[in-house]
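help with these tokens:
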Amino acid sequence: MLNYSVDAEGIATVEFDYPDKSQNILNAASMGAYADAMQKALADPAVKGIVVASAKKDFIAGGDLAELGAATDAAAFHASISAWHKLMRAIELGGKPVAAALNGSTLGGGMEVALGCHYRVAADNPKARFGFPEVTLGLLPGAGGTQRLPRLAGMMAAAPLLMEGKRIKAAEAQKIGMIHAVVAAGEERKAARQWVVDSLASGAKPLQPWDAKGFKIPGGGPNTPSGMQMLMAANAMLREKTYDNYPAPRHILSCVYEGLSTNLDTGLAIEARYFTNLVMSPVSKNMIRSLFFGMQEANKLASRPANLANPVPQQKYSKIGMLGAGMMGAGIAMSTATAGIDIVLLDTTQEAADKGKDYARKQWSKQVQRGRMTPEAMEALLARIHPTASYADLAGCELVIEAVFEKREIKADVTKKTEAVIAADAIFASNTSTLPITGLAEASVRPANFIGLHFFSPAEKMPLVEIIVGKATSDATLARSMDYVRAIGKTPIVVNDSRGFYTSRVFGTYVSEGMALLEEGVPPALIDKAGLIAGMPVGPLALADEVSIELVHKIAQQTRADLGKAYVERAADRVAAKMVAALGRLGRKSGAGFYDYPADGPKHLWPGLAEQFPPRVGASALRAGDTPSGADNEAMLSLEEIVERLILVQSVETVRCLEEKVLRAPIDADVGAILGWGYPPFRGGPIGWLHTLGAAQSVAALDRLAERHGPRFAPPKLLRDMAARGERFYPA
């Protein structure tokens, strides 16, 4: 776990070397070992100075998230972090020079270990990053980061690292004072040791800046005019961006304001309390479970078919086919080319196919202009995209993906034309967002090789791919398709076939509920504001405009035609039909939807909505906490209930997907929701939110909503049974 040695000149080296892991992490075991080693070195009169280093390619990756996520005893956790603070102060005040040799990335708790040393030297490693990513998982730097960094760099420079989780390169870290020197890779230990030797030769007692007489915070402390201005602006921006749904950045600001208003030791005690609060909170546990462990398992292809009679070797791709050169097809082509794979981009005409390549050129040109890509690199990527109108060019493709118009007849036609050209073992995938894969596979002569690969727009940026397994899809096809998703750097979730699959089906409930609220007479501005307050990135009406109200209408028409008498009309169907068929307002693409999109100004709600969907009396005056009474009771909803409806309608539909075996595991639902349509991470995902509430409370809330607003909120049997048995979706 730690290697300890002392050389002939009395310089001790304390080297992190966590066993059986590629990276060093901080947990009870490694922190205890570090404490023992440092206390030994400080107490040994033969040791004159100390170098802290790493035997791995990086310094320390951060804290052990499994241990943090499992912590439930607040008092014990607070005691342990307070003991760590005392150790760090003992190192700083121990009278012996301590230098950190940072050979690679130094993040989170690792950066805090380094900041607790008197001197920090980093290797000039282009892959190395320095910073505090804790906020991205609902936490704060709890081992002194909120106190030491702003005392070194100033509050302004520290803010993006602490509050946004920004990671910076060595040169920038040196510029703001986070590290002292950058040396050639491989020379960092030698440089750290030399500083210790020079420090000993000077005879001066090593001190951190904040322990020196007359220390002042760079740029001014929190009670100076500049500090107060920075904190006021940060608070306002934080409120605007998060609606106070995320306690971590708010607690970080509190640590900075309260901690920097006093001495370091008191500041560390303040930080320990805020850190303990976050570690125990459901928000951090939700975010750690979904954003870290859930995504980690998905990216490792944990659900790739294994233990088969004939194991499927990893598929290496060299040539992919893409049918449809629109924005989606072009985006998939960009992702594929970026992965070093050639892609044939086919459309009905050469001109249309060329437009798809031009889309890629425009997007990559923006990166060139920003200095993120060289012109030569862009041309090399573009050379991998081969636009064509000839199906013959698909010969040799190991995988072909179609992203043509959402009509079965068109998809069947391109399937047959493609299969006439590609090899017998090649995979054919549909990017459909709603049409069942099993039905589309009927056009294929090899349905075992037919699968769904549902990308999200814009495909070159969105990280999720929903893989849909049809009834005839083979395990080998699934495994090979997962290999492609990993090859292009996307995160896959695997679902079973159904109408709308998982993502489109549940995402659609959010948009539909917004339309239902509109039909009920809730003011549109309140509906979309409630969506933002709920934590969604966009309000449901604005989102309907983005995805196209016309598409919502067409999907409803197709579903009605497919299901016949079994189809149950929804409020969203009536609203979409009115907007599209009666009013010709199709969404953003036509410049007119629930919003107007003037060429010379920002979008704004269409004034005509008030006439088409009249608000009920008093509804526009509702505020958080308001309770309707008397005759207005049926006409008014509190802001809390609107938020509750927009969130729980997604959760209840997700449980139905689990119950119907569309989803294979709860974590797939949560990862898919967060990555696919921006479900608020602080809730953990649609299932994570029910886990947070508890099954019994979830059933009670859904029963109340179902009684008032209809059977779409009725709790599925799966959830009722879990509540009756006291079960949870995830371990407590």
Observations:
- The chain has three domains: 2-280, 319-498, 504-640.
- The mean pLDDT is 94.
- The chain has 29 helices and 21 strands.
